[in-house]
Amino acid sequence: MRFLRSLCVHSVLLIAASVGALPLAADEPTTIELAIYPQQIDAGPTDHRFLPPDDQLKPGNAAVVMLRSIWEQQAFMTRTLPRVRDWMEMPIDDDDIKQNFSFGSIESQLRRAAWMRDADWDYPMNEEPAMSILLPDVQGLRMIVGYCQTLWIRQRLAAGDLDGAREAIQVQFACGRHLSKTPFLVTQLVGSVIAGYGLDETQSLIQKPASDNLYWTLAMLPDSLSDWSAVIDRESTMLRDSLPSLANSMPPIDDPAWSKLAGEMSDLMLQQMVRPLTIMEGLQLQAKMFDLAKEDLRRWDMFTEEVLVKMRPEEVGMRWILALNDRIWSDVRRACTLPPNHALKRLKEVDAMVENVMQRTGAPASPFPKDTVAIYLAMHRFDRRVKLLQTVEAIRDDAARNNGELPGSLDQLYLPAPNDPLTQQPFVYERNGDTATLSMARLEGVAEPTQQRLVYKISVLQTSLGDDSKSP
């Protein structure tokens, strides 16, 4: 029973970590009014970079600097930080923000960290059960690097300090990349959220009349601030690495170690138990899971019926869970090597297989990743938005070359618009008089989180260079 109770808890933990609060919804995309000013791309050299150049990075551990920036500022953490969430929803010129948000000392430490080459978070990898490793620093850094740095950027934009805003966005991207150096899925998702804040402010920056065209600055960004291949490899071994007695090899058939493994899994999961199963629920789940496990282990040609009858129920269950986990993550790893349309098709099949297991066992959740499609969409959230903004900059350049007129199509642009990384086709563009829409196409058969699919409604304004008073 203890083993069966653990099954339910494990599923809650793994799904929460995997999906990272990315509920899929079939809502309409987010529409954003974008008022831009014509600005031709500078033909000369540019020093504008959204990540520090590799040859200019300095030795040092950025993780230590970022964490010290928190612990050295206890007054800020206790008095100011609790108010930051509310300030994110206010106009940046609100008197409360002006009088009480002072971030310069921490921002200077984040800037120092941004220019360091390494970030070693020194988590006890391979020293304790992987799922028991706590990440208390991640949420704190999301607040500091995400919310607080965003407010700092907005203050620079409001003051007309566009160079300062651009440099602060660079710090946010770099620190978000540092946070993603550990291949836990949850840290990648937080790093992705932080990068999203930076792209939000880039979106604001390019609407300023004096803003330089950032076409090449955006083009030089990597496809991701994370190493998603390493993340998938890490997640695929998370379950095994959380069972200390498993070591490097499976115990022999009918070995008492299987009971110990089941107990370790139970102890690990019971720490997060929401509600233990009743005796009746446990017996029903045990029977269904045992039948399905035997069926799959035979079907996969892993064991014959004669061998299976020699195994204890907990051994059959554990062998099945571990084998199915390996198969699922192998499918995920293979799918992610394919072009996006094929990858999404394969991942939908993986999700359907997991859902089928849940239905056949009657379990309220499963110990396997539930929404691999959501994980894949998160992997491409950054590069998709970067390419969309780069297309806006190509439109700004074209408008400057054609008396402020919007192009009739993306094919008419002086410099090419990049393709949508997920559809591998041009973004959807349509001109309608003095305005135009630029959007991410709907993915066939995939329900996207509404905040991930954007539509820009673009209008072109005219002003003399440097007149920031007409900024939207």
Q: What attributes characterize this protein structure?
A:
472 residues, four-stranded mixed beta sheet, two-stranded parallel ribbon, disordered C terminus
Explain this structure to me?
There is one protein chain. This protein is an alpha/beta fold. Helices cover 53% and strands 7% of the residues. The protein has 18 helices and six strands. The strands form two sheets. The chain has a four-stranded mixed β-sheet with strand order 1-6-5-4, covered by helices on one side. Strands 2-3 form a two-stranded parallel sheet. A hairpin with a 2-residue loop joins β4 (428-432) and β5. α7 runs antiparallel to α8, α8 (185-205) runs parallel beside α18 and α10 packs antiparallel against α15 (313-335). It is globular and about 80 Å long. The model is unreliable at 1-26 and 464-472 (pLDDT under 50).
The separation of the N and C termini measures 62 Å
| Number of distinct beta strands | 6
The fraction of residues assigned to DSSP E strands is 5-15%
Mean pLDDT: 86
Shape, please? globular
Note poorly predicted spans.
Answer: 1-26, 464-472
Please work out how many helical segments DSSP would assign. 18
* Main β-sheet, spatial strand arrangement: 1-6-5-4
Helix content: 40-55%
Order of helices and strands: HEEHHHHEHHHHHHHHHHHHHEEE
Query: What is the CA-based Rg, rounded?
Result: 26 Å
